[in-house]
Design brief:
Blueprint lengths: L3 H13 L14 H11 L3 H8 L4 H13 L4 H13 L6 H5 L1 H16 L12 H18 L6 E5 L5 E5 L7 E5 L2 H11 L6 E3 L2 H10 L4
Parallel strand pairs: 1-3
Antiparallel strand pairs: 1-2, 3-4
Protein name: TIGR03085 family protein
InterPro entries: CHP03085, DinB/YfiT-like, Maleyloyr_isom
Organism: Cellulomonas uda
Length: 215
């Protein structure tokens, strides 16, 4: 199944449920900034490049701030969220890329809004979506722990487990247990707002947390 249309609808629902100045998990961003980021990612080449290229980050941040400023009040915010709902044009690269470019982005940003108070609010998800997010979580975990010397195993409450990395040297293995969505949020840098159980030696847990802050 293709998930990004479902996750876009979920994100739009979350945005419409909060005021424009609602906090999000994105540091310094209110709901209006997050909505502006999504719109510009899908419509502005400069902003798209700024997300990927550090030297263009300032350009992207200014563009997000300017668009967010048009959504400080209800009418402007509603119009901006409508643009999030509309998504990219049919032939935009992000539209053509489908889930590969959008599933993680839209799921994580939906939770950025829902968990803007910093509290874990994991919700029931379709089992097939759970499997897709599990795949994303394990893939991101491998990419983001390349320099971590400890072993890492991810475990879902319903049984599946993945050995992400073997330990090096004298280090042991850390086991992180949680729902697929929470694991994905953790490896995306949102660990503080997740409900995870971490098991391992104190030094190994600390080494992992330096790379990916834990709850």
């Amino acid at each position: 199944m293709t998930w990004h249309p479902v996750l876009r609808a979920d994100l739009v629902e979350a945005l419409r449920a909060v005021p424009p100045d609602a906090p999000t998990l994105c540091d310094g961003w209110q709901a209006r900034h997050l909505a502006a980021h999504v719109v510009l990612r899908e419509s502005s080449a400069r902003v798209g490049l700024g997300i990927a290229a550090p030297r263009l980050t300032d350009v992207a941040e200014r563009a997000v701030a300017e668009l967010a400023d048009t959504a400080m009040h209800d009418a402007g915010y509603a119009a901006l969220v409508d643009r999030v709902e509309a998504g990219p044009s049919r032939w935009h690269p992000l539209a053509l890329a489908g889930d590969a470019a959008n599933r993680v982005e839209l799921y994580v940003h939906g939770e950025d809004v829902r968990r803007g108070d910093g509290v874990a609010h994991e919700r029931p998800l379709d089992p097939a979506l759970v499997d897709a997010l599990w795949h994303d979580a394990t893939r991101f975990a491998r990419a983001r722990t390349l320099r971590v010397p400890v072993g890492l195993v991810l475990v879902r409450p319903d049984g599946p487990r993945a050995r992400v990395r073997k330990p090096r040297g004298d280090h042991g293995t850390v086991v992180v247990r949680g729902g697929a969505g929470d694991l994905l949020l953790w490896v995306s840098g949102r660990g503080a707002a997740t409900d995870l159980v971490v098991q391992g030696e104190e030094a190994d847990v600390a080494a992992l947390a330096r790379a990916l802050p834990l709850p």
